[in-house]
Write a structure and sequence with these properties.
Blueprint (H helix, E strand, L loop, with lengths): L6 H9 L2 E5 L2 H8 L6 E6 L8 H15 L3 E6 L21 H7 L3 H5 L13 E4 L1 H4 L4 H8 L4 H4 L3 H8 L6 H17 L3 E5 L3 H15 L4 E5 L26 H9 L6 H8 L4 H12 L4 H16 L2 H16 L8 E3 L6 H7 L6 H9 L3 E3 L2 E2 L14 E4 L3 E5 L1
Parallel strand pairs: 2-3, 2-5, 3-4, 5-6, 7-11
Antiparallel strand pairs: 1-6, 8-9, 8-10, 10-11
Length: 402
């Protein structure tokens, strides 16, 4: 496979949405300019039924690298999802069953395929599951893996140290997660692993194991997380049930983009769109010069819907948003449902307006739900519904009861 060493494209790969390069930038430049096809991967655990725009940042980088001729591997952590990634968590994750994982990952290939070209015959993209090798490890293998790490190194993780300080449980199986993820790099014979900064510890564990088992270097690229630059709050989180899923309907995707904080506009353009660096510089400058953030967010929302659907869907989603938000009109084509129980919280969940009953109760208590145009009071989770009732969450999301 002929490798494209275009300096401008390599520069974009090494700078756009990138936080840190391990061991350093020079090592990456040498690898990209070597003319060798590199094996590059990013893993995702199917802990929910969707991937979101935060993951898309990494898939867009993989897309750039694929276009340069490198071998791309999409790894689904179906085995590691059953252990539970402790990264950036102040409590142990709920462990998933095999059935949970199978259900969650049903459409992952389709979702990720909206960014990566799985039909490319000249340079096929590999789609792998880490149960292929992790499920075959013996207890002896696991002991061997563990022998390459000290307890002190494990406790370097801020969240582990914090939990010990706060007398919160820290389970032994959580130590195995970075070992398992690290072994993925060995099994895939990866040259480069890409992931968010919250995955740094796990990816560096892979560097340790590649050196130990294969006597070579694996490079690590950590990417910026989608966060509010003012508050530091994550904009996309599967654990919290927030963010914009790659499988969202156009209207939902558009509306959720419009709900992002103004201060995040430029970063989302950088991390989640195909706009050029020059175009984004113009957007940044226009904000400094007093441009209306709402106009730029409409541009951003259309760009995102166009990527995951098409231009026609983006135009229609813009019209829907203007009618329901700016003009305060109630949409005529809203989803109609027959809930299993005719209660408000149940209808919110089954209508797809929230992802869990706890989030339904939370949004009701925060005053974010209206029934037939009237705000619902705190604690009215079991408010009775009847045919024809219209539930509204926020300014844009509606469901009619059948």
């Amino acid at each position: 496979m002929k490798i494209n060493n275009d300096p401008k494209k390599n520069k974009e790969v090494l700078e756009r949405s990138v936080d840190t390069l391990y061991p350093d930038r020079k090592a990456f430049e040498e690898a990209l300019n070597s003319g060798r096809q590199l094996r590059i991967y990013m893993g995702i655990d199917p802990t929910a039924t969707y991937a979101h725009l935060g993951h898309a940042t990494n898939y867009i980088i993989l897309k750039r690298l694929h276009e340069l001729g490198h071998k791309i591997i999409v790894l689904i952590g179906d085995f590691t999802a059953m252990i539970g990634d402790p990264s950036d968590k102040n409590a142990a994750r709920k462990r998933l069953t095999r059935e949970d994982v199978e259900n969650n990952m049903k459409t992952f290939r389709e979702q990720i395929g909206k960014i990566l070209d799985f039909n490319n015959a000249e340079n096929p993209i590999e789609f792998r599951y880490n149960s292929e090798w992790l499920s075959k490890l013996t207890f002896t293998d696991s002991v061997e893996l563990a022998s390459h790490f000290t307890v002190q190194r494990m406790l370097e993780r801020d969240n582990f140290h914090k939990r010990i300080q706060e007398n919160k449980p820290l389970y032994v199986h959580e130590f195995f997660y970075p070992l398992m993820q690290g072994y993925d790099s060995v099994a895939l014979e990866a040259d480069i692993e890409i992931g968010g900064t919250d995955q740094t510890f796990n990816m560096l564990a892979g560097r340790t194991l590649v050196r130990a088992y294969q006597n070579r270097e694996k490079l690590v690229m950590t990417t910026t997380l989608l966060e509010n630059p003012v508050t530091g709050e994550k904009l996309m989180s599967k654990s919290l049930g927030t963010g914009i899923g790659l499988d969202e309907a156009p209207n939902d995707m558009f509306g959720k983009t419009m709900a992002l904080p103004d201060e995040a506009i430029v970063q989302v353009f950088i991390d989640c769109t195909y706009k050029t660096t020059e175009e984004i510089a113009e957007i940044r400058e226009s904000l400094k010069n007093g441009a209306n953030p709402r106009d730029l967010k409409i541009q951003l929302a259309k760009e995102i819907v166009k990527i995951y659907h098409n231009e026609k869907a983006a135009d229609e989603a813009e019209e829907y948003f203007i009618n329901t938000f700016k003009k305060k009109e109630m949409p005529t084509d809203m989803l109609e449902i027959m809930p299993t129980v005719y209660e408000l919280a149940v209808a919110l969940l089954e209508g797809g307006l929230v992802k869990s009953k706890s989030l339904a109760r939370q949004v009701i208590d925060q005053g974010g739900v209206k029934l037939n145009g009237e705000k619902v009071g705190e604690g009215e989770y079991t408010k009775q519904l009847k045919s024809g009732d219209v539930i509204q969450k926020g300014a844009r999301f509606f469901v009619r009861i059948k």
